[in-house]
Design goal:
heterodimer, A: alpha+beta, Rossmann fold, 2 domains, 24% helix, B: MetI-like fold, two-stranded antiparallel sheet, 12 helices, 2 strands, transmembrane helix (chain B), MetI-like_sf (chain B)
């Protein structure tokens, strides 16, 4: 992964707004053609990071490089980067055509070329024939497409997307996710995507950067982030999980919930205090005699594809996802495979 | 819920203070009173067509337009500064523009008299530094100065209000798409602020074209604008009929200019102006 030169490189970026620390030592690189998602709860600094790449904020310290060039003080209009804004920010006094043509007109592209490119873009985002429409008359999803077209028509090296699907309803959001992914594949433009929706991040990204409180918590592929969360925050934020305090007795051997389990992790100090992550769907529901842990079902909720059950056992409240349900009040057994037990170094939670 | 009745006092008010007086002006404008009593006539309007009156009208329109233009040139940048990030939260600066409006209009204009006098404050300062004296009192310049000074807030405030409402993201989007400050201003900020500019122009132009206090005080007695003219017909010459006719003509001019403004406003697709 380190072979090609990163197109964007952030080095030791720090940023404060007044007394509030927004970014604390951000180090990050983005490769060409990559789909990178900055993921985190609101206020984690992901949008600020994007704005620093776009040129709307300057870091207090640290450097930002674009294709090897330091661009800390380069104004937005000189960066070969375009942004799709959270609430689209379409120009209300222009029609769809003029909105999309805006960037090209500024560059002084000649009229027939602009017209051709705008047509191509409208086709790409499935809005053929919308040229003369005023942007106010468009639905949220259509405005979103215009915003994407307006940015992409300039053929930027990097497209920045700031929670672009946040204002759309669930179904439309899913459709747009697929479409954005297709556009990414087709154009080969590098995408840097900001979202707080972990599912969106998992579906779309090549690389996910999980952020919290101005710090990067973990960088990795969606699978890595989901299966091997680096700390309790990541485990908690990406999907649902049971996080249990435990002790690493020796390599491949962990004690938690009053029992010793076999696991696949090593390299910890003997008897080191650790956090164990178990995904709710990895806990198997078995007969109470054969389970590794037994517990009493406290509640059952139907979630569509599966049931969510809260089970109390060994002083821990376990969240289980299973397509079969147990009766409330019943005693059940739970069983875990070694590769479903994820060990994390202890960190301050949250 | 039908709450129509709450507007009744306003209707009564409008009837007594707007509709009836307007009808009276209409009545006076089309009548004269002579030995045979009151009779209908168009004489008052014919009288106005004489060159000296037309000259006064054109001069009033010209001065008012020029003052409006100066207000726009001065007021727009001020509104932009007030609306900019650094100052939008500072009430001090906006108060500096609003507080003078709390003082009486006459007092403010009189104070300019003191400032501009032959031996007034400005000339005292100038002569102290051995600079040439400023003798602009009782000239066009003084009248324009008085109008700009008095009506500038009416230009700044509507523009400021519109500028504050422009989404900062639009400016960022324009920068993002390659626009430098000049492009962003000419393609985004200015077109989006047109409704404010339009109401600013109307709000300055209308009082400027009808003022008689400013021209009387700063223009000296010899200086006549249409406002002074109307005033003189009513107060000194007691020719209410001719005075009403001029008022009607003035009203028509103002209605036409409002019509042009609102048309322009619609074409630009801007939001509702102040009226």
């Amino acid at each position: 992964m380190n072979e090609s030169q990163p197109i964007i490189l952030l080095k030791d970026i720090r940023k404060n707004f007044g007394q509030t620390e927004v970014l604390n030592n951000i180090n990050l690189y983005v490769l060409k053609n990559e789909f990178v998602t900055l993921l985190g709860p609101s206020g984690c600094g992901k949008t600020t990071t994007l704005r620093i790449i776009g040129g709307f904020e300057t870091p207090d310290s640290g450097d930002i490089f674009f294709e090897g060039q330091r661009i800390n003080n380069l104004p937005p209009y000189q960066r070969n980067v375009n942004t799709v804004f959270q609430k689209y920010a379409l120009f209300p006094h222009m029609n769809v055509y003029d909105n999309i043509a805006f960037g090209l007109k500024i560059k002084g592209t000649d009229k027939p070329a602009i017209s051709k490119k705008v047509d191509e873009m409208l086709e790409m985002v499935n809005l053929q024939g919308f040229h003369k429409r005023s942007v106010d008359s468009l639905s949220g999803g259509q405005q979103q497409r215009v915003a994407i077209a307006r940015a992409l028509v300039n053929q930027p090296e990097v497209l920045l997307l700031d929670e672009p699907l946040g204002a759309l309803d669930l179904k439309l959001r899913k459709e747009m996710q697929v479409e954005l992914k297709n556009i990414h594949k087709r154009t080969g433009i590098t995408f840097v995507y900001v979202t707080h929706d972990q599912e969106e991040a998992l579906t779309m990204s090549d690389t996910i950067v999980v952020m919290n409180k101005g710090k990067i918590q973990q960088i990795g592929t969606p699978q890595m982030i989901y299966n091997e969360p680096k700390n309790a925050f990541v485990a908690d934020f990406i999907g649902e999980s049971n996080i249990i305090e435990g002790r690493m007795l020796k390599d491949y051997c962990v004690e938690f919930a009053g029992r010793v389990f076999e696991c696949l992790d090593k390299g910890f100090e003997p008897n080191e205090d650790i956090d164990v992550v178990v995904r709710p769907e990895d806990i198997k529901l078995v007969h109470s005699d054969t389970g590794m842990i037994s517990g009493v079902v406290k509640s059952v909720t139907f979630k569509g594809v599966h049931f969510e059950m809260l089970v109390e056992g060994q002083g821990v409240t376990w969240t289980l996802h299973n397509t079969e349900m147990a009766e409330v009040g019943a005693t059940i057994g739970m069983s875990l495979n070694p590769n479903d037990i994820h060990i994390m170094k202890k960190t301050a939670r949250g | 819920m039908n709450r129509k009745w709450v507007s009744y006092p306003y209707f009564v008010w409008m009837l007594i203070f707007i509709i009836i007086p307007s009808l009276l002006i209409l009545f006076y404008a089309f009548t004269v009173r002579d030995e045979q009593g009151i009779r209908f006539t168009l004489d008052n309007f014919y009288k106005f067509c004489e060159p000296i009156y037309i000259t006064v009208l054109l001069k009033s329109l010209g001065l008012a337009l020029f003052s409006t233009f100066v207000c726009l040139i001065v007021g727009y940048p001020v509104a932009m500064i007030l609306a900019s990030k650094q100052f939008s939260r500072s009430t001090t600066l906006s108060m500096l523009f609003i507080i003078p409006m709390w003082m009486n209009f006459l007092l403010r204009t009189y104070s300019w008299l003191t400032l501009l006098e032959k031996n007034g404050i400005i000339n005292a300062i100038l002569s102290f530094f051995n600079l040439p004296r400023l003798d602009i009192l009782y000239t066009n310049t003084a009248v324009v100065l008085g109008m700009v000074y008095n009506f500038l807030p009416f230009m700044i405030l509507p523009i400021y209000t519109v500028l504050m409402k422009i989404d900062g993201k639009l400016v960022e989007a324009a920068q993002d798409l390659g626009g430098n400050s000049l492009t962003v201003f000419s393609k985004i900020t200015l077109p989006l602020s047109i409704p404010g500019v339009m109401s600013g122009i109307t709000m300055v132009f209308m009082p400027a074209v009808t003022t008689f206090v400013i021209s009387k005080l700063l223009g000296g007695g010899q200086y006549t604008l249409i406002g002074n003219f109307i005033e003189r017909q009513f107060i000194q010459l007691s020719d209410w009929n001719f005075g009403s006719a001029i008022s009607m003509i003035m009203m028509i001019f103002i209605l036409i200019s409002i019509g042009i403004m609102s048309k322009f406003d619609e074409d630009k697709g801007g939001g509702a102006a102040l009226w």
